[in-house]
Amino acid sequence: MVLPLLFLEATEQDLIEKYAVLKENKYYKELLETGIPVIGTWDDHDFGMNDGGEDVSIKEKSKEHILKFLDVPKDAEQFQHDGIYASYEYGPPGQKIKFILLDVRYFRKSDDVLGPAQWAWLENQLNNSDAQLNFIVSGSQVIGVDAFYRETWDVQSLEKLYSLIAQSKASGIMLLTGDVHYSEILKNDCRKFNYPIYEFTSSGMTHSVENIPFVSTLATNTYSRWSLIGQTGKNFGTIEVSWDSEEPLVSIQSRTPETGAILFQRQFLLRDVQYNATRERHNEAACFRDEDLGIFGWKKIPKPITTSFFLSSFAAIFVLVIYRLFFKKPNKPVQKDD
User: What is the mean pLDDT of the chain?
Assistant: First the structure.
C-alpha cells in the first residue's frame, strides 16, 4: 500500500517473503505439529491486490505459492483446474462435515464472483452432499451486501448463490467469511430457504479495525441489517458441534487471540438447519431489501458509485490535512502601526 486508499499489486517476491515469514512463525509451526489438518482459500491481499479479481497479472504465480504454503499435494483437485477452489469432508456418516472452499478472486468480475466452471462445480458439491453440515467458505462477506463500504458479493452472484442453496436441498449450509478485520454473525431467513442461513465472519488475529480512528466507528455503525452481533477487536473463530448430546448443538464462537476467551457466541440445534421437505415455512421475508442496491437509502444510485463518492471525499480530506500539516507556510503576523 502506498498512502491510504492507494494499493499496488504485489510482486511475486512479496508473496515469497510473506509466506516464508508466516511459515516460520513459532505459533504456526506449533499448530502444524499437532497434526490438525490445515486447509484454506484466499482473499484479496493473499491473492496479490486489494479488491483484486480476474485481471490481476500474477494470479498464476499467486496460486503456485499459496498452494505450496498450504502443503497441498500435487495430485489434489486444485491442480486440475484454474483457481484454488476445493472441498474437504470429515467425520463418519451421520456426523459428516463438509467444507466447500470457494475462490472469490481468480475469476471475479463486477457482475460475477465465481465464473462459469466454479458455479457448476459448486452446484454439484451441494446437490451431491450427504453431510449434516456444509460450510461454504468465502474470503469476502456474502450476506452483508447492504453494508456500503465493504467489498461483498454483487447482487447477481448472490441471487444465483441463494438459488443454488434453495434448490440443492442440502442440510446445514452455513457461510464462513473474513476480510473485514472484525467478527460478526449474520443471518438470512428469507422465504427461499428451508431453514435459516447463518454467516460467521472472523478476522483478524493480528490486525483489527478497533484502534483505527474513524474506521472503527464506521464499522460498528454500519453493520449489515442482517447482522445479529459483532465486535471490532482482534479475534479468531471456532465452531463446536456436540454430537454426543441427545440434541446435537452447534456453537459459533468469536474468541480473543490472547487467551482464547469467548467474546460472543450463538447456538442453534443441528435439527433446525437440516433440510426437511415437510417443514412448514411461514416466513415471507424477501431475500433482498431495496437498500441492498444502494447505501444511506440512495436506492437508485448503484453501490459502486456511492462507495466511490465516499472514498474520493475521504481521500480529498486526507490530502488537505497533509497539505496543511507539512506544506502550507504559516501566515506571518501582521504588525500594526502604533
Answer: 85
Asked whether 146 and 291 are in contact (CB, 8 A), the reply is: yes
Mean pLDDT of 96-110: 97
- CA-to-CA distance for 173 and 257, rounded, in angstroms? 27
Which three three-digit cell numbers place residue 318? 486526507
CA 117 to chain centre: 21
Angle at CA 101, nearest 5°, toward 97 and 105?
165
Residue 90 pLDDT exceeds 90: yes
Cis preceding linkage at 204, omega within 30: yes
> Which residue blocks in the chain are alpha helix, DSSP H?
12-23, 26-33, 44-47, 59-69, 116-127, 155-168, 215-221, 303-326
262-269 vs 236-242, strand pairing mode: unpaired
Determine how many CB atoms are found less than 10 A away from the CB of residue 172. Answer: 23
- DSSP single-letter state for residue 77: G
Helix, strand or coil for residue 76?
coil
Is the Cβ–Cβ distance between 142 and 95 less than 8 Å? no
Q: Kindly indicate the confidence band of residue 253, based on its pLDDT and cuts at 50, 70 and 90.
A: very high
Could you tell me the pTM of the whole model?
0.85
CB 136, CB 102: distance < 8 Å: yes
**Which amino acid is present at 17?**
E
113 — phi, psi (to 5°)? -85, -35
CA distance 198 to 224: 13
> Do 302 and 156 touch, CB atoms closer than 8 A?
no
Report the C-alpha gap between 209 and 117 in whole angstroms: 35
- Kindly give, in sequence order, each residue whose CB lies less than 8 Å from that of residue 251, ignoring residues fewer than 6 positions away: 239, 240, 241, 242, 265, 266, 267
